[in-house]
Amino acid sequence: MDKFSVEQYAVINRISETLNNLINSKTLLQELDQVAVTQHFSNQLLKNWSPAQVMAIPEDELRKLIKAVMLFQVLYELLEDLNLEEMDIFDTALSGK
Fold first, then answer.
1. pTM of the shown model
2. According to the 3-state scheme, what is the secondary structure of the chain?
3. Residues in CB range of 39: below 8 A, 6 or more apart
């Protein structure tokens, strides 16, 4: 295995462990496909940063980042299932009317 592959594997492993901890602590997140989310995060982080930069992110910051994106995805999936009337109710609730 070359150096990049080892570093890339370390990033994927770190993200996977962080995701696993989050999923185990939040019932709402347990419906997400952990493998797909891990791949998505790994690809996005490694697209913008080097493996060394990703590994340098403090654990609490990485956890917050992953948690925010995961919760956004769950919310997106919930909203996707709403019909037009339910979306109007949701929009009204958000706008405070």
1. 0.68
2. CCHHHHHHHHHHHHHHHHHHHHHHHCHHHHHCCHHHHHHHHHHHHHHHCCHHHHHCCCHHHHHHHHHHHHHHHHHHHHHHCCCHHHHHHHHHHHHCC
3. none
Predicted local distance difference test score (pLDDT) of residue 73 = 78
User: Could you list the mean pLDDT of each consecutive 10-residue stretch along the chain, which spans 97 residues?
Assistant: 75 90 76 82 88 92 86 81 88 79
Sorted by sequence, the CB contacts under 8 Å of residue 74 that are 6+ apart come out as 28, 29, 31, 32
